[in-house]
Automatic annotation (TrEMBL):
Protein name as annotated: Ferredoxin reductase
InterPro entries the record matches: Cbr1-like_FAD-bd_dom, FAD-bd_FR_type, FNR_nucleotide-bd, MRET, OxRdtase_FAD/NAD-bd, Riboflavin_synthase-like_b-brl
Keyword annotations of the record: 2Fe-2S, Iron, Iron-sulfur, Metal-binding
Residue ranges of domain FAD-binding FR-type in the record: 4-105
Keyword Iron attributed: yes
Cofactors, names only: FAD
Length: 241
């Protein structure tokens, strides 16, 4: 495996995803490419030489020297406030990666896929959805996306567009939109049984979100009979932002 190096990354575009999250597109000359589900390290360096770095999931499949991240602000953080509120087109940071080889989806696979995302855990799963679409893959996807409230969702417009072979189920934990019969609450066995694939279909399952959410969802998948080796998890917790 080649040694990972820090590369200069220039911001070339950005899009607000919610009140506290922003998608950033960087031009990274010499970028080696990546797989959907991998992540990168981002490093900021202050004028006095102080550095801070954090890891962020890649939000889109490989596209030449372009790297796309979606960052959610962490109050009092060192990196996320700059990336979500201050950085401007033309500004530079350093990026190192790609990192990770287990929590990835490869377009050559035709196995059914179940994506289970909690909050900003949707980011690497969205990279998989986009990679599937980009490759014209026949693999059927199902996404269960758990949110506190509708306005907290990422990629809302894109996920509303018809995408043959992708079925989406939204779960809300705090505020439920009008007309939805499921009450607000955490992910449950019935949610995965109804919105996911049966274990007999032998899907590849990808679960990403806060630690508690990931552990609960993985336990429910096991209870439904899914093979442990087909359940891949990626979790995040407080890092200082």
């Amino acid at each position: 495996m080649p040694r990972l190096v820090w590369r200069r990354a220039e911001l070339v575009g950005g899009t607000a995803e919610s009140a506290g999250a922003r998608t950033l597109r960087f031009l990274v000359p010499g970028w080696p490419g990546h797989l959907a589900g991998q992540h990168v390290d981002v490093r900021l360096t202050a004028e006095d030489g102080y550095t801070a770095q954090r890891s962020y999931s890649l939000a889109a499949p490989a596209d030449g020297d372009l790297v796309e991240l979606t960052v959610e602000i962490v109050p009092d953080g060192e990196v996320s406030p700059y990336l979500t509120e201050e950085i401007q087109a033309g500004d530079q940071v350093e990026i190192r990666g790609p990192v990770g080889g287990w929590f990835v989806w490869r377009p050559a696979s035709v196995t059914p896929v179940l994506l289970v995302g909690g909050g900003s855990g949707i980011v690497p799963l969205m990279a998989m959805i986009r990679a599937r679409r980009q490759a014209g893959s026949p693999a059927p996807f199902r996404l269960l996306y758990s949110l506190r409230a509708p306005e907290r969702g990422y990629y809302a417009d894109e996920l509303r567009r018809p995408d043959p072979g992708l079925d989406i189920t939204y779960l809300y934990t705090r505020s439920v939109p009008e007309g939805l019969s499921r009450p607000a609450g955490r992910i449950m066995l019935d949610d995965l049984a109804e919105g996911g694939w049966p274990a007999a279909s032998e899907p590849d399952c990808y679960v990403c979100g806060p630690t508690g959410f990931v552990e609960a969802a993985a336990d429910l998948l096991l209870a439904l009979g899914h093979a442990p080796e087909r359940i891949r998890t990626e979790r995040f917790g407080p890092t200082g932002g």
